[in-house]
What we know:
Radius of gyration: 15 Å
Helix content: 40-55%
Shape: flat
Oligomer: single chain
Amino acid sequence: MWTSGFSYLSVSLQVEMLHSRTGTEVLVIAVRSDLRQHLRPHVFYTSDLFTEYFDLTIGKTANDIAFGLEGYCISGIRGYGLFLTFDNISKF
Protein backbone atom coordinates (compact mmCIF):
# COMPACT_ATOMS: atom_id res chain seq x y z
CA MET A 1 0.00 0.00 0.00
CA TRP A 2 1.38 3.40 -0.99
CA THR A 3 1.08 6.10 1.61
CA SER A 4 1.97 9.76 1.67
CA GLY A 5 4.59 9.02 4.32
CA PHE A 6 6.30 6.57 1.98
CA SER A 7 6.20 9.10 -0.86
CA TYR A 8 7.68 11.85 1.30
CA LEU A 9 10.38 9.45 2.48
CA SER A 10 11.15 8.47 -1.12
CA VAL A 11 11.46 12.10 -2.22
CA SER A 12 13.59 12.93 0.82
CA LEU A 13 15.95 10.03 0.12
CA GLN A 14 16.32 11.03 -3.54
CA VAL A 15 17.03 14.63 -2.54
CA GLU A 16 19.61 13.49 0.02
CA MET A 17 21.36 11.38 -2.63
CA LEU A 18 21.40 14.36 -5.02
CA HIS A 19 22.84 16.55 -2.28
CA SER A 20 25.48 13.94 -1.42
CA ARG A 21 26.56 13.51 -5.06
CA THR A 22 26.50 17.12 -6.22
CA GLY A 23 26.47 19.35 -3.14
CA THR A 24 23.24 20.93 -4.40
CA GLU A 25 21.19 22.48 -1.61
CA VAL A 26 17.51 21.51 -1.86
CA LEU A 27 14.35 22.69 -0.12
CA VAL A 28 11.10 20.75 -0.55
CA ILE A 29 7.79 22.11 0.72
CA ALA A 30 4.69 20.00 0.13
CA VAL A 31 1.27 21.30 1.18
CA ARG A 32 -2.30 20.22 0.63
CA SER A 33 -4.46 22.14 -1.81
CA ASP A 34 -7.84 20.85 -0.66
CA LEU A 35 -9.46 20.66 2.77
CA ARG A 36 -10.41 17.04 2.11
CA GLN A 37 -6.74 16.11 2.17
CA HIS A 38 -5.55 15.27 5.67
CA LEU A 39 -1.80 15.74 5.36
CA ARG A 40 0.21 18.23 7.31
CA PRO A 41 2.66 20.44 5.44
CA HIS A 42 5.92 18.63 4.83
CA VAL A 43 9.23 20.52 4.86
CA PHE A 44 12.54 18.90 3.99
CA TYR A 45 15.88 20.62 3.47
CA THR A 46 19.42 19.42 2.99
CA SER A 47 21.10 21.85 5.38
CA ASP A 48 20.45 24.53 7.95
CA LEU A 49 21.36 27.17 5.37
CA PHE A 50 17.64 27.39 4.54
CA THR A 51 16.56 27.96 8.13
CA GLU A 52 19.28 30.57 8.58
CA TYR A 53 18.30 32.32 5.34
CA PHE A 54 14.59 32.48 6.18
CA ASP A 55 15.30 33.68 9.70
CA LEU A 56 17.71 36.39 8.52
CA THR A 57 15.63 37.64 5.58
CA ILE A 58 12.02 37.41 6.74
CA GLY A 59 12.20 36.28 10.35
CA LYS A 60 10.14 33.13 9.71
CA THR A 61 10.83 29.42 9.75
CA ALA A 62 10.39 27.08 6.81
CA ASN A 63 7.40 25.64 8.68
CA ASP A 64 5.85 29.13 8.95
CA ILE A 65 6.22 29.48 5.20
CA ALA A 66 4.73 26.03 4.60
CA PHE A 67 1.66 26.74 6.74
CA GLY A 68 1.15 30.12 5.04
CA LEU A 69 1.51 28.51 1.61
CA GLU A 70 -0.96 25.80 2.58
CA GLY A 71 -3.49 28.44 3.62
CA TYR A 72 -3.05 30.23 0.31
CA CYS A 73 -3.39 27.02 -1.70
CA ILE A 74 -6.53 25.94 0.17
CA SER A 75 -8.16 29.38 0.19
CA GLY A 76 -8.76 29.60 -3.53
CA ILE A 77 -7.94 33.32 -3.38
CA ARG A 78 -6.05 34.30 -6.51
CA GLY A 79 -4.96 37.50 -8.17
CA TYR A 80 -2.28 40.09 -8.35
CA GLY A 81 -4.31 42.64 -6.40
CA LEU A 82 -4.03 40.60 -3.23
CA PHE A 83 -0.88 40.93 -1.18
CA LEU A 84 -0.62 38.74 1.90
CA THR A 85 2.18 39.03 4.39
CA PHE A 86 2.90 36.39 6.97
CA ASP A 87 1.58 38.76 9.63
CA ASN A 88 -1.71 39.10 7.73
CA ILE A 89 -2.01 35.35 7.25
CA SER A 90 -1.76 34.74 10.99
CA LYS A 91 -4.89 36.89 11.48
CA PHE A 92 -7.09 34.50 9.46
